[in-house]
C-alpha cells in the first residue's frame, strides 16, 4: 500500500514547496522506492493553459498532453520520469467533475456541498494516482499558503485522509524563519502562527521545514519543536542554496528522508540513498571549465519563471559539458530597433523562445535575421521556429509580407498557418496540439547529429503549423525540413544548409531535459556555441 506525504506551505508563497517536494521525492527514489509527485492548485482555472505566463510563469506540458503548473517540471527534472494528467489538479477541475456528476444525477437528491462532495473528489484525485502504478510513496504538494480561503477544502481533505490512514500519511509544513537585521535574530513567530492556522483546521504537521537565510541554531529548533508540538528532529533547516539542485543533498544532511521514513513506520536502513550521479552533476555544475554567452529572445523576459524549463535545460547541458551557460534574457520588442540588436553582438548563441500573439514578433524576426546572416548558432522553439520560417520567407524567398496567420489573418503568404482541424475549434482551454508526438528525423541533419536517432518523441503546445504549400520552395532555397510527423505530414523541424548551426523546432525540447538526461538538442546547440566561442 502506498504511503502519502502532503506538503503544505505557510507564512508566504514562493518558499520553494515544489523544490522541497521534488527533493523528498529524489531522496526516496534514490533509496529504491517508487514514487510520484502531485500538485493540487487552489485556483479556479480548470488548468493553467489559459493563464498568461506573467501570472504563474511557464505552462508545463506533460507527455500525455496536460497543460500544468511549472512545479511539475521540477518534479520531472529531479525524478527523471514522466508525470501525467493526474499529477496536477486544480479547484476548477475538481468543481467541474463534481458539477458534471450532479448534472448526471449521480448524487440522487443530495445537497451537493464542499464537505463531503468537494473534499471527497480531492481525496479521490489523490488516491487515484496509485490505481495502476503501485507507488511506495505519493507526494502531494498543496499550492497556495495555509490560511488562504481557496486552500481550505484541501486542508480539510488532508485532515480527513490523515484521520483515515493514520500512520500511512504525514504532513510536512514548509515555513519561513526570517532574520531581523535590527534585532540580529531569527524569528520563529511566523512559523508558530502558521502552524496554529493548520492546527485550527485540525491538521498537526509531522515535520516542519524552515526556509532560512541563516543557520538555525539548536535553540531556535528547540523553540519551534516546543511551540509547534513536534519532535525535535522533525524540525528541518532549509538554508538558501546556490542552486535548487543542491537542495536534495541539504535535505539529506538534515535527515529529512530518515525522519519521513520513521514517521511513516518504514525502517530507514543505515544505508544512505545513492546520489552519486546527482553529486557528479553538481560537481560539474559548480566547476565549469568554459563559458558561453547565450541570448534568449522572448516577450515575457521580465518574469524569469516564464522560461523556467528552457533555463533549467541550459543548466543541465551546461553541467554535462562543464560549461557555464550565461543566459541573457532579451526583450523581443527591443530587437525592433538598431540599438536593441546591438545586444546580440558578441553572443555565442541565440535562442528565440515560444510564445503567443503578435507582441514582439518583429523583434524576434530581426534577431533571427541577425543570427542567420552572422552565422550565430540559433535555436528556435515553437514560435521561435515559426518566426525563423517567416524571416526566411521575407528575406530570402522575397515574400516581404509573409507571416503566420496567427499574426495577420489576411496575409497572402501564410507560411505558418492554422491547422485544418483547428479551424472549427472554439474556446481556448485545452484545444491546442498538445503532448508528445513522434517525429522522424532526417539522417545527416543537425537534428540527427544531436539525437543520433531517426525517430524521436517530443511534446507540443501550439495551434499553427508550417504551411506545406511552400515546403519545396523553402527547400530549394536552403531551408530544409529535417523532422516530420509523418502521419499528418507536419513539419517538426527546419534547418539551414548554409549555416554552422541553425535549427528551428515546432516542439518543445525543454520540457524533457532532466538532471540525469540533459536534452540532446540543447547539448547540440551549446556545443555549437562553444565552437563559435573557441
Ligand atoms: N503561437 C504559436 C502557435 O500557437 C506558437 C506557440 C508556442 O510557441 N508554444 O502555434
Structural features:
binds glutamine; seven-stranded parallel beta sheet; globular; single chain; alpha/beta; 534 residues; nine-stranded mixed beta sheet
Q: In angstroms, what separates the terminal alpha carbons?
A: 55 Å
Number of strands: 23
Shape: globular
Computed Rg: 25 Å
**Order of strands across the biggest sheet?**
13-12-14-15-23-22-21-18-19
Could you give a short account of the major beta sheet? 9 strands, mixed
Q: Helix coverage percent of residues?
A: 25-40%
Cofactors, ions, other ligands: glutamine
**Helix vs. strand class:** alpha/beta
Unreliable segments (pLDDT under 50, ≥5 consecutive)? none
Strand content: 15-25%
Total of DSSP H or I helical runs spanning 4+ residues: 18
* Mean model confidence by pLDDT: 95
Describe this structure in words.
This protein is of the alpha/beta class. Helices cover 35% and strands 23% of the residues. The chain has 18 helices and 23 strands. Strands 13-12-14-15-23-22-21-18-19 form a nine-stranded mixed β-sheet, with helices on both faces. The protein has a seven-stranded parallel β-sheet with strand order 5-2-6-1-7-10-11, with helices on both faces. α14 packs across α15. The radius of gyration is 25 Å and the shape is globular. The N and C termini lie far apart (55 Å). The model has no long low-confidence stretch (mean pLDDT 95). Bound molecules: glutamine. Glutamine (GLN) is lined by residues 354-356, 382-383, 406, 461-464.
Amino acid at each position: 500500500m502506498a504511503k502519502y506525504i502532503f506538503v503544505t506551505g505557510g507564512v508566504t508563497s514562493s518558499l520553494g514547496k515544489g523544490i522541497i517536494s521534488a527533493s523528498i521525492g529524489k531522496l526516496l527514489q534514490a533509496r529504491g522506492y517508487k514514487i510520484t509527485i502531485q500538485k493540487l492548485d487552489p485556483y479556479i482555472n480548470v488548468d493553467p493553459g489559459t493563464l498568461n505566463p506573467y501570472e504563474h510563469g511557464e505552462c508545463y506540458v506533460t507527455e500525455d498532453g496536460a497543460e500544468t503548473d511549472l512545479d511539475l517540471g521540477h518534479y520531472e527534472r529531479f525524478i527523471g520520469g514522466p508525470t501525467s494528467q493526474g499529477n496536477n489538479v486544480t479547484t476548477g477541475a475538481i468543481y467541474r467533475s463534481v458539477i458534471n456528476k450532479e448534472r448526471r444525477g449521480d448524487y440522487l437528491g443530495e445537497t451537493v456541498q464542499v464537505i463531503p462532495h468537494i473534499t471527497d473528489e480531492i481525496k479521490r484525485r489523490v488516491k487515484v494516482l496509485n490505481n495502476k502504478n503501485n507507488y511506495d510513496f505519493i507526494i502531494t504538494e498543496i499550492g497556495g499558503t495555509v490560511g488562504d480561503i481557496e486552500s481550505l477544502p484541501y486542508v480539510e481533505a488532508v485532515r480527513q485522509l490523515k484521520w483515515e490512514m493514520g500512520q500511512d500519511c504525514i504532513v510536512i509544513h514548509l515555513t519561513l524563519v526570517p532574520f531581523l537585521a535590527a534585532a540580529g535574530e531569527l524569528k520563529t513567530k511566523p512559523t508558530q502562527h502558521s502552524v496554529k492556522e493548520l492546527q485550527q483546521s485540525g491538521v498537526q504537521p509531522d515535520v516542519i521545514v524552515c526556509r532560512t537565510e541563516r543557520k538555525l541554531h539548536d535553540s531556535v529548533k528547540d523553540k519551534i519543536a516546543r511551540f509547534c508540538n513536534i519532535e525535535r528532529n522533525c524540525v528541518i533547516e532549509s538554508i538558501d542554496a546556490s542552486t535548487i539542485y543542491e537542495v536534495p543533498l541539504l535535505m539529506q544532511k538534515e535527515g529529512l528522508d530518515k525522519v519521513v521514513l520513521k514517521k511513516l513506520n518504514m525502517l530507514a536502513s543505515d544505508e544512505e540513498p545513492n546520489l552519486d550521479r546527482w553529486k557528479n552533476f553538481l560537481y560539474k555544475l559548480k566547476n565549469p571549465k568554459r563559458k558561453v554567452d547565450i541570448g534568449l529572445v522572448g516577450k515575457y523576459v521580465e518574469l524569469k519563471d516564464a522560461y523556467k524549463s528552457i533555463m533549467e535545460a541550459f543548466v543541465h547541458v551546461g553541467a554535462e559539458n562543464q560549461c557555464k551557460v550565461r543566459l541573457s534574457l532579451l526583450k523581443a520588442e527591443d530587437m525592433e530597433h538598431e540599438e536593441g540588436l546591438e545586444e546580440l553582438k558578441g553572443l555565442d548563441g541565440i535562442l528565440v523562445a515560444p510564445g503567443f500573439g503578435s507582441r514582439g514578433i518583429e523583434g524576434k524576426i530581426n534577431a533571427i535575421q541577425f543570427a542567420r546572416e552572422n552565422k550565430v548558432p540559433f535555436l528556435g522553439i515553437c514560435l521561435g521556429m515559426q518566426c525563423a520560417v517567416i524571416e526566411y520567407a521575407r528575406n530570402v524567398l522575397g515574400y516581404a509580407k509573409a507571416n503566420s496567420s496567427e499574426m495577420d489573418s489576411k496575409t497572402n503568404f501564410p507560411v505558418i498557418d492554422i491547422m485544418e482541424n483547428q479551424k472549427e475549434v472554439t474556446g481556448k482551454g485545452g484545444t491546442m496540439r498538445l503532448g508528445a508526438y513522434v517525429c522522424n528525423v532526417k539522417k545527416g541533419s543537425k537534428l540527427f547529429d544531436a539525437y543520433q536517432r531517426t525517430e524521436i518523441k517530443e511534446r507540443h503546445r501550439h495551434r499553427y503549423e508550417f504551411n506545406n504549400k511552400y515546403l519545396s520552395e523553402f527547400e530549394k532555397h536552403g531551408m530544409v525540413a529535417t523532422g516530420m510527423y509523418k502521419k499528418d505530414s507536419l513539419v517538426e523541424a527546419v534547418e539551414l544548409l548554409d549555416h554552422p548551426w541553425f535549427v528551428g523546432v515546432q516542439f518543445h525540447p525543454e520540457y524533457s531535459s532532466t538532471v540525469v538526461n540533459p536534452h540532446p538538442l540543447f547539448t547540440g546547440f551549446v556545443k555549437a556555441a562553444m565552437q563559435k566561442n573557441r
